[in-house]
Specification:
374 residues, seven-stranded mixed barrel
Length: 374
């Protein structure tokens, strides 16, 4: 077997050399790290990673292979993938292929054999930054300059690259009886498991492009509205935020009042629509074991997270909004709710269920609001 060289170059000037195990090529993106021990297939196929090169902190990745059931999207949106060691052996009864083959199939550049501990520590100290991963150009200085010229994420609308283009109804196999609820999902890069959860809870699920207007959404007469996760800077999504503002105004005047539930980017867009602001975190939250406190109950949830931007709680002061959840690592806001409307959101991913099921109550709350209107 001929080893192929690969280089990861950061805008800080730091360069890591390793071996390529994915597709050949060159890709730029923001370098971030994820602390999950497993779930690499869900991570790679999560549209929220569009524009990012992912470094896995767990040293051995790929041992259980790839399967057809765990896809969060039909393709990989990440710009690149970095691991300490990619497993050469696949051992799992569900596996239908290997991680290297999967990456090559989706044309994703990946390297192994670098010190991911050193890389992670550098990102924690210097912050997430622009980077480039290459199997073609082996000139370190030239690659660093390419990384510095790459666009980055701030002010960039990546939602248009990952969301659906046309409205469609999501179905996941046969279902006995008629759906009791009709949910309109605004797709800003929605993970498949959000749709699966809604469908399993008895919802008729209609997915709309992020560019959909309020009248288009209300035309199906929904009993609830969900704002999905997605990539990039929420402040760049002025067209979605304006739609959410209009929806909130409609909910305030309507009877019965439609519940609105936001997840991750949906939480950030809801915060903007309610008059708040977001800012970029130094290195973001990405992993499957982040502790979050529910203010109302005092309970701690083990959550799955993937975000690089965060709501400023003080920006929502006096806006008839309260913060419902806090991250116990750094005290950042992880949830909000409107004080008088059935409008709420969380920054983390309740559909990912690493706890494994302790965040399911959020979907049940959404269903409960719709039940009142049924």
């Amino acid at each position: 077997m001929v080893l192929r060289k690969g280089i990861l170059a950061l805008e800080s000037g730091k360069v890591f050399a390793g071996q390529a195990f994915g597709a050949d090529g060159e890709r730029d993106g923001e370098i971030v790290f994820n602390t999950s021990l497993s779930g690499y297939q869900e991570i790679l196929t999560d549209p929220s990673y569009c524009g990012q090169i992912i470094c896995m902190t767990y040293p051995h990745i790929g041992n259980y292979g790839i399967n057809t059931e765990d896809m969060e999207c039909e393709r990989v949106h990440a710009s690149g993938f970095v691991v300490r060691e990619a497993s050469s052996v696949v051992s799992n009864w569900r596996a239908s292929g290997s991680l290297p083959d999967f990456l090559r199939e989706h044309n994703i550049v990946a390297i192994e054999g670098i010190d991911t501990r050193e890389l992670t520590r550098h990102i924690r100290e210097a912050g997430a930054m622009r980077a480039i991963i290459s199997t073609q150009d082996m000139n370190a200085g030239r690659l660093v300059e390419k990384a510095r010229r790459s666009p980055g994420l701030v002010g960039r609308d990546l939602v248009k690259e990952v969301g659906c283009r046309k409205k469609y109804e999501y179905k996941n196999g046969s279902r006995a009886g008629k759906a009791k609820y009709r949910v309109a999902v605004l797709d800003c890069g929605c993970k498949a498991n959000i749709l699966r959860e809604l469908y399993a809870l008895g919802c008729e699920v209609h997915v709309f492009p992020a560019t959909a207007k309020m009248d288009e959404i209300l035309e199906i007469k929904p009993t609830g509205i969900l704002l999905s996760n997605g990539p990039g800077d929420p402040s760049a999504l002025t067209y979605v935020i304006e739609t959410v503002k209009q929806l909130i105004a409609y909910i305030a005047d309507a009877s019965p009042k439609l519940p609105l539930f936001g997840i991750c980017l949906g939480h950030q867009m809801l915060g903007h629509a309610l008059g708040g602001e977001t800012y970029k975190l130094k290195f973001g939250h990405r992993g499957a074991n982040h502790p979050v406190k529910d203010v109302a109950t005092g309970k701690i949830e083990i959550t799955s997270q993937n975000h690089g931007f965060c709501l400023r709680p003080e920006s929502l002061s006096g806006k008839n909004v309260e913060i419902t959840h806090y991250n116990l690592y750094d005290g950042t806001a992880e949830g909000l709710k409107h004080k008088s409307l059935p409008v709420f959101s969380v920054q983390y991913h309740p559909e990912a269920s690493p706890g494994p099921r302790e965040a399911k109550y959020l979907f049940e709350r959404f269903i409960g609001y719709m039940e009142k209107n049924a």
